[in-house]
Amino acid sequence: MRGIDKDLSKDFRNRSYAQAQRILDMRRRTPKSGHSVATIHGAVLALTASVLSVPYDMPSWLPGHVTLLAHFIREPSPVKSTVTKAVAEFKRTHADTWSIQKDAFTEDELEVLRDTSSSSSYFA
């Protein structure tokens, strides 16, 4: 993603975002939508590639992409595992400057990110 043409990279980001958003919208309307785990995982992997292509940077499109990715946390494995690892890697690579970079996120987006890192407790 980093070494390719900027227009090609932008097109990939936009298409992967649109595909993931379509899947998420359909899942919200019809939880048993006809998307296979493989289709959902493919969209999540494309979003992951975009999010992880800019470690340490915070381009204007990144908050929306990482937030959309985080919305897939409740999907079954291997989607959930991919989302968990990608969000953890995003947080790790942005930790040093998070106090500044978090301003690029809305309060709702920050809440979605917090939800991905709060683990469910057996006793909750």
TrEMBL record:
Biological processes, Gene Ontology terms: proteasomal ubiquitin-independent protein catabolic process
Domain of life: Eukaryota
InterPro entries attached to this UniProt entry: PSME4, PSME4_C
GO MF terms, alphabetically ordered: peptidase activator activity; proteasome binding
One Pfam family from the record: PSME4_C
Domain Proteasome activator complex subunit 4 C-terminal: 39-124
GO cellular component terms listed in the entry, alphabetical order: cytosol; nucleus
Record PANTHER family: PROTEASOME ACTIVATOR COMPLEX SUBUNIT 4
Descriptive protein name: Proteasome activator complex subunit 4 C-terminal domain-containing protein
